[in-house]
Amino acid sequence: MALDQPLTIGPLQVSPGVLLAPMEDVSDLPFRRICRELGADIVYTEFVNAEGLLREDPTGPRRSYHKLDFHESERPLGMQIYGASELSMEEATRIAADRGPDLIDINCGCWVSNVALRGAGAGLLRDLPQMRQVVRRVRGATHLPVTVKTRLGWDADSIQIVDVARMLQDEGIAALTVHCRTRAQGHKGTPDYSWIPKIKQAVTIPVILNGDVTSAQTAAAAFQDTGCDGVMIGREAIRHPWVFREVQHFLPTGSHLPEPTLAERVTLCQRHLDYAIEQHGERYGLISLRRHFAGYFRGMRGAAALRQEMSQEKDLPRLRARLEQLIGEADLVAV
Ligand SMILES: Cc1cc2nc3c(=O)[nH]c(=O)nc-3n(C[C@H](O)[C@H](O)[C@H](O)COP(=O)(O)O)c2cc1C
Fold first, then answer.
1. Model pTM above 0.90
2. Does the pLDDT at position 317 exceed 60?
3. 256: left (phi over 0), alpha (psi -120 to 50) or beta
4. 110 is catalytic
5. I need a surface site. Which of 6, 53, 116, 236 has the fewest CB within 10 A?
6. Does the beta carbon of 67 lie inside 6 Å of ligand 1?
7. Does residue 90 contact residue 146 with C-beta atoms inside 8 Å?
């Protein structure tokens, strides 16, 4: 099984290969730092629209450009870009590569209509010659390793992932991540891991499994049952960012770590808040943390009310004071 081997992407080697998934509005710089500290081996930016990056007014807010901001402690870091046009993707690759990531990832898996129905993301699964063009241009625009993240296919009747993997390997990509669902499934239904061994038989590049890896056991089973070279974790990282630490501990030892204590939970939340304020400033920093409170307070007595209270708080010193107070509160012990 591939657990014995490090995950090798170009010059990068990580072991055993437990990655944070790119997630729009979630995998921003502060959250990526948190996940790296908790054991994610590679982290990815949110997807960045190639056209957006090219068209952005340098004197304006530069939302796309700032999505490519990163902190040195995040390395190894992948920047993910998406687009339907090979020319825009080529140019966007140059801009992204200039920012100094460790790899460039091409999104060929986004299922949402305003991306996929415009020929980008999973839309490229319906036009494989165009996918090839995009990958070729991106590869030609950088010396960094180029990886692809995609899905099994557009729908259950058009799964061509084994041929897609061969084609992408021929185009020189350094690794392939497969979200084991079709575009038609969105995020619903059970991911079908049985494609991973078939892909592994067809190509020599590393294959990273994605979809419903939610615990140390599911990660271990994914490695053992499919021979994948790495696993990528998305939604569970929002729910429980400690999942990386747990997987990293469990894979070599077979034993579980104790659950994070209340103090650890609140301390991590405080650290995330500090990073968020540093990166986004006070207003958006507070907003960006809202979607994470549920994860930090999960399992505590009164968690729902606490999350609501914290999400509504607009005053930073008051929020900080409340978090300090929580650490000392006995009635909010884990249940
Ligand atoms: C809120 C959210 C945002 C996402 N944004 C992206 C993205 O920007 N790029 C991408 O490749 N996938 C994106 N995804 C898909 C995830 O990377 C991942 O493939 C999917 O959630 C399945 O993995 P999971 O079951 O571990 O969550 C997103 C998923 C969610 C839930």
1. yes
2. yes
3. beta
4. yes
5. 6
6. no
7. no
